[in-house]
Design brief:
Radius of gyration: 21 Å
Order of helices and strands: HHHHHHEEHHEHEHEHEHEEHEEEHE
EC number: 2.3.1.-
Organism: Ctenopharyngodon idella
Strand content: 5-15%
Shape: globular
Strand order of the largest sheet: 1-11-7-2-5-3-4
Keywords: Acyltransferase, Cytoplasm, Endoplasmic reticulum, Glycerol metabolism, Lipid biosynthesis, Lipid droplet, Lipid metabolism, Membrane, Transferase, Transmembrane, Transmembrane helix
Family: Belongs to the diacylglycerol acyltransferase family.
Number of helices: 14
Pfam families: DAGAT
């Protein structure tokens, strides 16, 4: 048992060799094989991500408030003072850590599904980019693994390009959780933050925006190939104002890892979901995966389904400080055509049929 614990203790330290050596030293037990231990580590790595996303921010907020009522109030006060001082850091490029992005736990996270990154074109370090990521899925596993970590080798695949995955700005108001997100190069999805990265942080920046956002997550389910994009034009206007090239990105399999109960538009439950989405900033989806101990049961662990993220060809965008609606519509239409072409060119390689089409909502 001590050997097993020693194996897992090296996961977040980034010491992959120590894990493998510990596994080789395990006693020969019929029900305890190296492959099973690796699989357990993969499940744990995915489950910790889900729990972290759902509970870390709220949990740390409650803990901080509780500490003010204990003998540790000084620690809470010091952290709160630092939090106020550091409040604008997420909007100013954040505080990424290559050490965190290269944690060994992310390789187990990657291999659970598994997740792959496909490059179709070179990206110039002398340019800035806005990646449009589709679809959102429930937890955006492909987006996080490819752009919030180095598990799939983004920096080696695109040398000179620094990705910044954009997520809800509200997450950066939560103590500790905000620092955890920033360490992965994750930034708030608001204009101030994105403007800073594209105008005050040099070149070679790639801001990854999940275009469909929370609204799109309400429609994700196995077999669904639809994206919320028809009326989403803000990212195009932002690209024009900053002269950042647009890059369509599609993750095949993102919608396959969870099953969701989808309500019809106009139904009472759908109305409640949309109202809560506007209040909370995220969509309260009714979903399930498999159980932790029994794969045939229901639980929060996602199903093992391959996720393949394809980074498409960049669309060159000129810098126009005040783009007209006509120009915005033109580049928006170009982006949609490019995304559809990307989907059609790769769909049969990753489990879809030639007859499958991408629905733009």
């Amino acid at each position: 048992m001590k050997t097993i614990l020693a194996a897992y203790s090296g996961v977040k330290k980034g010491s992959g060799s120590s894990i493998l050596s510990a596994l080789h030293d395990l006693p020969s037990v019929p029900w305890l094989t190296r492959s099973k231990i690796v699989k357990h580590l993969q499940v744990i790595s995915v489950l910790q991500f889900v729990i972290t996303f759902l509970a870390m921010g709220i949990g740390c907020s409650l803990l901080l408030m509780y500490m003010f009522c204990t003998d540790f109030w000084v620690i809470a006060a010091v952290y709160t003072a630092w939090l106020i001082y550091d409040w604008n850091t997420p909007k100013q490029g954040g505080r990424r850590s290559s050490w965190v992005r290269n944690w060994t736990v992310w390789t187990y996270f990657r291999d659970y599904f598994p997740i792959r990154l496909i490059k179709t074109n070179n990206l110039l370090p002398s340019r800035n980019y806005i990646f449009g990521y589709h679809p959102h899925g429930i937890f955006c596993f492909g987006g996080f693994c490819n752009f919030g970590t180095e598990a799939t080798g983004f920096s080696k695949m695109f040398p000179g390009i620094k990705p910044s995955l954009a997520t809800l700005a509200g997450n950066f108001r939560l103590p500790v959780f905000r620092d955890y997100l920033m360490s992965g190069g994750i930034c708030p999805v608001n204009q101030n933050s994105i403007d800073y990265l594209l105008s005050s942080n040099g070149t070679g920046n790639a801001v990854v925006i999940v275009i469909g956002g929370a609204a799109e997550s309400l429609d994700c389910a196995p077999g669904m190939n639809s994206v919320t994009l028809k009326k989403r034009k803000g990212f195009v206007k932002l690209a024009l104002k900053q002269g950042a090239d647009l890059v369509p990105v599609y993750s095949f399999g993102e919608n396959e890892v969870y099953k969701q109960l989808i309500f019809d538009d106009g139904s009472w439950w759908r109305t409640v979901q949309k109202r809560l989405q506007k209040i909370l900033g995220f969509a309260p989806c009714l979903f399930h995966g498999c159980g932790l101990f029994f794969p045939e049961s229901w639980g929060f662990v996602p199903y093992c389904r391959p996720i393949t993220t394809v980074v498409g060809e960049p669309i060159t965008v000129p810098k126009i400080e005040e783009p007209s609606q006509e120009v915005i519509d033109m580049y928006h239409a170009m982006y949609i055509r490019s995304l559809k072409s990307l989907f059609d060119n790769y769909k049969t390689r990753f489990g879809l049929n030639e007859s499958d089409t991408l629905l733009i909502q």
